[in-house]
Predict the structure.
Amino acid sequence: MKKLFGAMALVLLTSACSSMLPKASTDASNFQSFDEARAAVEKLQPMKSDRQSLENNGFNLKSHPNIKLLTHADVVRLFVPTSLLKREDLDPGILKCLEARDACRGMEVTESRMSRVRTGNFWTDFTNFKRRTETTGWRLDALILFVDDLVVYRSWGGQPAINEVEVRTNPLGPFQEIGPAMLTTQ
């Protein structure tokens, strides 16, 4: 009876092993896709849109995650012309913001949806011999500049599709980290 129970437990464990691997997701966006977030930024029209337009497009400054508010000094650090970039090379909205001094504000927005799933063999993962992690999702970064409540500049960039696979192999498995741990405790 014990052998039968042991065999059944082994079959159960090995058949459901991949479902026992860790999974993680990051949902740092009110938008469902990269294109939806990009479209919300592009709806903002420089020299026409205001802060209310921003909120209407899904960017509520008080409750939206991952918005960094920028001061005039932050904007200056981003756009002060270098020897390679001349003042006339800057967008008119950026110039307007720089000239407005303390009335110039900005915001950096990071929108993302990421999923990390460990795949492969449960036992090699559990014993730390080999771990395979698949990361998928998207990330959008946007910069929006204001003078008072008027949007004077907006731009976006990012990664519309993220698909990464990380494979970590440890020939010593669970003993791989013992060496460095022993060296630091002496």
